Fold this sequence. Notes:
Layout: E1 2-4, E2 13-16, E3 30-31, H1 33-42, E4 45-56, E5 61-70, H2 84-90, E6 104-108, E7 123-127, H3 128-134, H4 139-142, H5 155-162, E8 169-171
Parallel strand pairs: 1-8, 2-5
Antiparallel strand pairs: 2-3, 4-5, 6-7
Amino acid sequence: xxxxxxxxxxxxxxxxxxxxxxxxxxxxxxxxxxxxxxxxxxxxxxxxxxxxxxxxxxxxxxxxxxxxxxxxxxxxxxxxxxxxxxxxxxxxxxxxxxxxxxxxxxxxxxxxxxxxxxxxxxxxxxxxxxxxxxxxxxxxxxxxxxxxxxxxxxxxxxxxxxxxxxxxxxxxxxxxxxxxxxxxxx
Length: 186
Protein backbone atom coordinates (compact mmCIF):
# COMPACT_ATOMS: atom_id res chain seq x y z
CA UNK A 1 0.00 0.00 0.00
CA UNK A 2 1.30 3.41 -0.96
CA UNK A 3 0.70 6.55 1.13
CA UNK A 4 0.41 9.56 -1.14
CA UNK A 5 1.50 13.06 -0.17
CA UNK A 6 -0.14 14.57 -3.24
CA UNK A 7 -3.86 14.05 -3.91
CA UNK A 8 -4.95 10.97 -5.84
CA UNK A 9 -5.23 11.71 -9.55
CA UNK A 10 -9.03 11.83 -9.33
CA UNK A 11 -9.03 13.89 -6.08
CA UNK A 12 -11.32 11.46 -4.27
CA UNK A 13 -12.32 12.20 -0.68
CA UNK A 14 -12.58 9.71 2.17
CA UNK A 15 -16.17 9.57 3.47
CA UNK A 16 -16.66 8.94 7.18
CA UNK A 17 -19.85 8.13 9.03
CA UNK A 18 -21.05 10.65 11.63
CA UNK A 19 -18.98 8.76 14.24
CA UNK A 20 -15.82 9.39 12.16
CA UNK A 21 -15.42 5.75 11.10
CA UNK A 22 -15.24 4.91 7.40
CA UNK A 23 -18.54 3.73 5.96
CA UNK A 24 -16.65 0.85 4.39
CA UNK A 25 -13.11 -0.49 4.40
CA UNK A 26 -13.40 -2.65 1.32
CA UNK A 27 -14.04 -1.00 -0.92
CA UNK A 28 -12.80 2.02 0.96
CA UNK A 29 -15.58 4.60 1.23
CA UNK A 30 -14.39 7.36 -1.07
CA UNK A 31 -16.32 9.60 -3.44
CA UNK A 32 -15.30 11.70 -6.44
CA UNK A 33 -14.55 15.32 -5.63
CA UNK A 34 -17.58 16.53 -7.62
CA UNK A 35 -20.01 14.50 -5.46
CA UNK A 36 -18.26 15.64 -2.28
CA UNK A 37 -18.41 19.34 -3.20
CA UNK A 38 -22.13 18.95 -4.00
CA UNK A 39 -22.69 17.23 -0.62
CA UNK A 40 -20.87 20.11 1.14
CA UNK A 41 -23.14 22.69 -0.49
CA UNK A 42 -26.24 20.60 0.25
CA UNK A 43 -25.20 20.51 3.91
CA UNK A 44 -25.05 16.69 4.09
CA UNK A 45 -21.36 16.51 5.14
CA UNK A 46 -18.80 18.40 7.20
CA UNK A 47 -15.32 18.95 5.80
CA UNK A 48 -12.75 17.36 8.11
CA UNK A 49 -9.58 17.80 6.02
CA UNK A 50 -8.67 19.40 2.70
CA UNK A 51 -6.11 19.05 -0.06
CA UNK A 52 -3.82 21.99 -0.93
CA UNK A 53 -5.85 22.52 -4.11
CA UNK A 54 -8.49 25.16 -4.59
CA UNK A 55 -11.45 25.02 -6.91
CA UNK A 56 -12.99 28.22 -8.20
CA UNK A 57 -16.30 29.47 -9.52
CA UNK A 58 -17.05 33.03 -10.60
CA UNK A 59 -18.33 33.86 -7.11
CA UNK A 60 -16.37 31.68 -4.70
CA UNK A 61 -13.37 29.49 -4.09
CA UNK A 62 -12.78 26.61 -1.72
CA UNK A 63 -10.10 24.07 -0.90
CA UNK A 64 -10.93 20.62 -2.17
CA UNK A 65 -12.06 18.28 0.65
CA UNK A 66 -9.91 15.19 1.27
CA UNK A 67 -11.94 13.85 4.24
CA UNK A 68 -15.60 14.50 4.98
CA UNK A 69 -17.99 13.16 7.62
CA UNK A 70 -21.70 12.61 7.22
CA UNK A 71 -23.95 14.76 9.37
CA UNK A 72 -26.43 11.90 9.78
CA UNK A 73 -25.29 8.57 11.18
CA UNK A 74 -25.81 5.51 8.95
CA UNK A 75 -26.44 2.36 10.98
CA UNK A 76 -23.79 -0.24 10.17
CA UNK A 77 -25.79 -3.08 11.75
CA UNK A 78 -28.02 -3.45 8.72
CA UNK A 79 -27.82 -6.72 6.80
CA UNK A 80 -25.28 -6.57 3.96
CA UNK A 81 -26.50 -6.53 0.39
CA UNK A 82 -26.27 -9.84 -1.47
CA UNK A 83 -23.83 -8.79 -4.19
CA UNK A 84 -21.06 -10.50 -6.13
CA UNK A 85 -18.54 -8.24 -4.43
CA UNK A 86 -19.77 -9.07 -0.92
CA UNK A 87 -19.78 -12.82 -1.63
CA UNK A 88 -16.19 -12.62 -2.89
CA UNK A 89 -15.25 -10.59 0.20
CA UNK A 90 -16.97 -13.07 2.54
CA UNK A 91 -15.00 -15.88 0.87
CA UNK A 92 -11.79 -13.80 0.99
CA UNK A 93 -11.42 -13.76 -2.79
CA UNK A 94 -10.48 -17.42 -2.99
CA UNK A 95 -12.01 -20.60 -4.38
CA UNK A 96 -13.83 -22.46 -1.61
CA UNK A 97 -12.89 -25.80 -3.18
CA UNK A 98 -9.17 -25.48 -4.03
CA UNK A 99 -8.13 -22.16 -2.43
CA UNK A 100 -6.69 -20.35 -5.46
CA UNK A 101 -7.49 -16.68 -6.02
CA UNK A 102 -7.67 -16.46 -9.81
CA UNK A 103 -10.47 -16.72 -12.39
CA UNK A 104 -13.17 -16.54 -9.71
CA UNK A 105 -16.86 -17.19 -10.34
CA UNK A 106 -19.97 -18.07 -8.35
CA UNK A 107 -21.00 -21.64 -7.62
CA UNK A 108 -24.46 -22.72 -6.52
CA UNK A 109 -23.79 -25.36 -3.85
CA UNK A 110 -27.15 -26.93 -4.66
CA UNK A 111 -27.35 -26.39 -8.43
CA UNK A 112 -30.25 -24.39 -9.86
CA UNK A 113 -31.12 -27.48 -11.92
CA UNK A 114 -31.74 -29.30 -8.62
CA UNK A 115 -33.78 -26.51 -7.04
CA UNK A 116 -30.95 -24.39 -5.60
CA UNK A 117 -31.54 -20.68 -5.14
CA UNK A 118 -29.24 -17.69 -5.50
CA UNK A 119 -28.82 -16.75 -1.83
CA UNK A 120 -26.15 -16.18 0.79
CA UNK A 121 -26.58 -19.77 2.00
CA UNK A 122 -26.26 -21.41 -1.43
CA UNK A 123 -23.58 -19.39 -3.25
CA UNK A 124 -19.82 -19.83 -2.87
CA UNK A 125 -16.80 -18.36 -4.61
CA UNK A 126 -15.22 -20.93 -6.92
CA UNK A 127 -12.52 -20.76 -9.56
CA UNK A 128 -13.69 -21.50 -13.10
CA UNK A 129 -11.94 -24.92 -13.28
CA UNK A 130 -13.55 -26.12 -10.02
CA UNK A 131 -16.93 -24.73 -11.02
CA UNK A 132 -16.69 -26.52 -14.36
CA UNK A 133 -15.56 -29.78 -12.73
CA UNK A 134 -18.41 -29.65 -10.18
CA UNK A 135 -20.91 -28.85 -12.94
CA UNK A 136 -24.58 -29.41 -12.08
CA UNK A 137 -23.85 -31.66 -9.10
CA UNK A 138 -23.99 -31.14 -5.37
CA UNK A 139 -20.66 -31.19 -3.52
CA UNK A 140 -21.43 -34.73 -2.34
CA UNK A 141 -22.22 -35.94 -5.85
CA UNK A 142 -19.06 -34.31 -7.23
CA UNK A 143 -16.95 -35.38 -4.23
CA UNK A 144 -15.84 -31.76 -3.87
CA UNK A 145 -16.51 -30.47 -0.36
CA UNK A 146 -16.09 -26.71 0.19
CA UNK A 147 -13.70 -25.53 2.88
CA UNK A 148 -16.49 -23.42 4.44
CA UNK A 149 -20.25 -23.56 4.22
CA UNK A 150 -21.93 -20.51 2.71
CA UNK A 151 -23.59 -18.20 5.23
CA UNK A 152 -25.02 -14.72 5.47
CA UNK A 153 -22.30 -12.51 7.01
CA UNK A 154 -22.97 -9.50 9.18
CA UNK A 155 -21.79 -6.04 8.16
CA UNK A 156 -19.30 -6.23 11.01
CA UNK A 157 -17.81 -9.46 9.58
CA UNK A 158 -17.50 -7.93 6.10
CA UNK A 159 -15.83 -4.82 7.55
CA UNK A 160 -13.32 -6.98 9.43
CA UNK A 161 -12.58 -8.98 6.29
CA UNK A 162 -12.23 -5.77 4.29
CA UNK A 163 -9.40 -4.58 6.50
CA UNK A 164 -7.31 -7.50 5.24
CA UNK A 165 -7.40 -6.07 1.71
CA UNK A 166 -6.00 -2.53 1.91
CA UNK A 167 -6.43 -0.27 -1.13
CA UNK A 168 -3.52 0.33 -3.49
CA UNK A 169 -3.05 3.82 -2.12
CA UNK A 170 -4.15 6.07 0.73
CA UNK A 171 -3.71 9.81 0.99
CA UNK A 172 -1.80 10.91 4.09
CA UNK A 173 -4.81 12.97 5.27
CA UNK A 174 -6.88 9.75 5.45
CA UNK A 175 -4.53 7.78 7.71
CA UNK A 176 -5.78 9.17 11.04
CA UNK A 177 -9.32 7.99 10.23
CA UNK A 178 -8.50 4.44 9.12
CA UNK A 179 -7.73 1.42 11.23
CA UNK A 180 -8.09 3.52 14.39
CA UNK A 181 -9.13 0.50 16.44
CA UNK A 182 -6.21 -1.75 15.50
CA UNK A 183 -3.32 -2.41 17.87
CA UNK A 184 -0.47 0.06 17.65
CA UNK A 185 3.06 -1.16 17.05
CA UNK A 186 5.21 -0.81 20.14
